[in-house]
Amino acid sequence: MSNPILALDDVSKVFGRADKPVYAARSVSFALHPGRTLALVGESGSGKTTAARLIMREYSPDQGRLLFHGAPLGKADSKALKAYRSSVQMVFQDPFSSLNPTHTIRYHLERPLRLHQKGLSPAQRRAAIVELLERVKLGPNLIMDKFPHELSGGQRQRISIARALAVNPQVIVADEPTSMLDVSVRQGILNLLNDMKSELGLALLYITHDIATARYVADEIMVMYAGQIVEWGAVDRVLDDPRHPYTRLLLSAVPDPDRRFDDIRFADELGRIEEIRAQAAKAQPAVSQVGENHFFRPMPA
Ligand SMILES: Nc1ncnc2c1ncn2[C@@H]1O[C@H](COP(=O)(O)OP(=O)(O)OP(=O)(O)O)[C@@H](O)[C@H]1O
């Protein structure tokens, strides 16, 4: 298996007062590899966005390290940080608020090209915009001079992806990229992310509360609860044979005619979740972890 592009090594982030800490991330370790998608799954408040913000360097870790191609980023010089910033791009949940309503699509794509590929002539920049729009399966001539409000939610999310691609990233962090979109266009966006991963060899972190969608895009899955990774492994293993009660609970909430959420068989598990909740509220990690952490033992490609 290839070396990881990016890794979180035993990272913790704590909010709140010292006497009442909130562990948004607790000893979190994982790695992102080229051409692979890792799904980070958990309910609201589990710490998914905190993990994304740590990767985007909006938060600095209280403990642990961020590694980029094996080198700790904390000590990186400004050149290395600049390389990191263009290598790691984010696609947000809300394609409305992430695009500026007063600018055309051409502007949104031209800007990162101007900043990160300074040597391009105007004609080369135009060709690059055409290529980006074609890559996200939008007709360049139809779209380029439109404003964000003239596009559908799905089209806008494709523009967000094109904009992220404009700087030739190695990693894309997609935080709930389909949750604000119409159900009918969600699959198209997930397919596009899959294509990007395979065609460009990107490492993708797919963040979602919807564990069922992980199967469409992810190679591996990590389940996060109260700031901790409680289960991880190959996506089929985790979804077909969930071993942590919290993973089973998440899966039981997925509509399935054969499994009812209030099924008596889950009563014990719900009780155990309360136990886990109580343990997790304490300062020391107490959540049982299941599976192999591919940061420490890389899974075969
Ligand atoms: N800036 C902050 N200040 C204080 N507490 C925070 C801050 N950011 C996150 N938290 C807390 O950390 C925990 C994890 O939050 P986080 O937003 O990472 O979860 P999430 O899984 O992304 O949830 P959501 O899906 O609702 O965004 C929560 O208890 C949250 O209240």
Automatic annotation (TrEMBL):
InterPro entries: AAA+_ATPase, ABC_transp_ATP-bind, ABC_transporter-like_ATP-bd, ABC_transporter-like_CS, Oligopep_ABC_C, P-loop_NTPase. Gene3D superfamilies: P-loop containing nucleotide triphosphate hydrolases (3.40.50.300). CDD domains: ABC_NikE_OppD_transporters. The keyword ATP-binding applies. Signal peptide: none annotated. GO terms for molecular function: ATP binding. The lineage of its organism: Bacteria, Pseudomonadati, Pseudomonadota, Alphaproteobacteria, Hyphomicrobiales. It holds the Pfam family ABC_tran. The keyword ATP-binding applies. It is found in: Cell inner membrane. It comes from Devosia salina. It is a peripheral membrane protein. This is ATP-binding cassette domain-containing protein. It comes from the Bacteria. Residues 6-251 form the ABC transporter domain. Belongs to the ABC transporter superfamily. Keywords: ATP-binding, Nucleotide-binding, Transport.
